[in-house]
């Protein structure tokens, strides 16, 4: 039984979408590149809500792009950025600066094992570029291994690691081996982690000299559709990679900072400790910020080269990042992700029992996927039918998403008031 649904949609008496867009065109100007033909014109963000130029309010269940985990313009983060802006807006890691130092210290304290040295960059792509550079420099090998269906960035080298053709364009991609992703739903071996790990060994045996630079994976493939890797997979593969002289990189751009609910870092769900961890998105709650954390041993090899960039470790972003770490702990966001995420999964599974069009419900914490199919046995993806299906599901999904999101934010909002 669905819980009673007494939520009244926010009354909207504004102009139609076309009227709004006519106005927007002049506002946006033709020189701005946009992903959508008719993008929303967002003018304000307050915690879980976004407002467009017509005053319409949206519940931002996408959290920016899986980024604004603490809410838009969160007061404590806003205050930290504002105060730092008044003092110093630009510095790099070629200076000593206490905000950068404090942030690095706080971040390193969140890491397990010997992951103690922090490098600051500006995005997830840059973090993965740097991680790949570290792997190659440290091992002296070239070959990188990444999973099919992975997204690791949009820069030339990281597109090489990415294995989703909709994102690719012709670039020279050398020395990257894309192995089978251990996808329990679509993968040929179901949840049999050992069989997928054999594929990694095969690639090393037949596609390389026997030595590799590194392996990179997300514990839950985000852009690939909330695909959680088969349990035990990373442990087996980390062993294989280490034996082949490589290092293991965890891409925590989406899975980090408690988003999986059960753990602070996604790799912990697989019981491994990587040699290099990359992060972005949630680290700055929307600020352009990324980081790579590694061991002193790898860092000492990196130290043989010049490594800093103009904006990495920017004090305003660092002050924001430091506040994010505080807010995540203080407001117990990880526990909250676990709480709301399991509720969301439960309700989506409830839907799945009633609708054949839902082939799979999966994920962890607030990285949850629902896959639509036209045929459950063959798992044929629903494409053209999707719009119709969404229309059919609308009442239910809206109810469930509404409950999930309200539950997610109600505690936070009440704390703030
Ligand atoms: N890694 C993962 C797992 C991502 O999801 C993304 C962004 N979607 C990136 C790397 C690249 O991050 P950015 O867009 O900040 O370059």
TrEMBL record:
<keyword id="KW-0496">Mitochondrion</keyword>
<dbReference type="InterPro" id="IPR015421">
    <property type="entry name" value="PyrdxlP-dep_Trfase_major"/>
</dbReference>
<dbReference type="InterPro" id="IPR015424">
    <property type="entry name" value="PyrdxlP-dep_Trfase"/>
</dbReference>
<keyword id="KW-0601">Photorespiration</keyword>
<dbReference type="InterPro" id="IPR049704">
    <property type="entry name" value="Aminotrans_3_PPA_site"/>
</dbReference>
<dbReference type="InterPro" id="IPR005814">
    <property type="entry name" value="Aminotrans_3"/>
</dbReference>
<dbReference type="GO" id="GO:0009853">
    <property type="term" value="P:photorespiration"/>
</dbReference>
<protein>
    <recommendedName>
        <fullName>alanine--glyoxylate transaminase</fullName>
        <ecNumber>2.6.1.44</ecNumber>
    </recommendedName>
</protein>
<comment type="subunit">
    <text>Homotetramer.</text>
</comment>
<dbReference type="GO" id="GO:0030170">
    <property type="term" value="F:pyridoxal phosphate binding"/>
</dbReference>
<comment type="similarity">
    <text>Belongs to the class-III pyridoxal-phosphate-dependent aminotransferase family.</text>
</comment>
<dbReference type="InterPro" id="IPR015422">
    <property type="entry name" value="PyrdxlP-dep_Trfase_small"/>
</dbReference>
<keyword id="KW-0809">Transit peptide</keyword>
<dbReference type="Pfam" id="PF00202">
    <property type="entry name" value="Aminotran_3"/>
</dbReference>
<keyword id="KW-0032">Aminotransferase</keyword>
<keyword id="KW-0808">Transferase</keyword>
<dbReference type="GO" id="GO:0008453">
    <property type="term" value="F:alanine-glyoxylate transaminase activity"/>
</dbReference>
<dbReference type="GO" id="GO:0005739">
    <property type="term" value="C:mitochondrion"/>
</dbReference>
<keyword id="KW-0663">Pyridoxal phosphate</keyword>
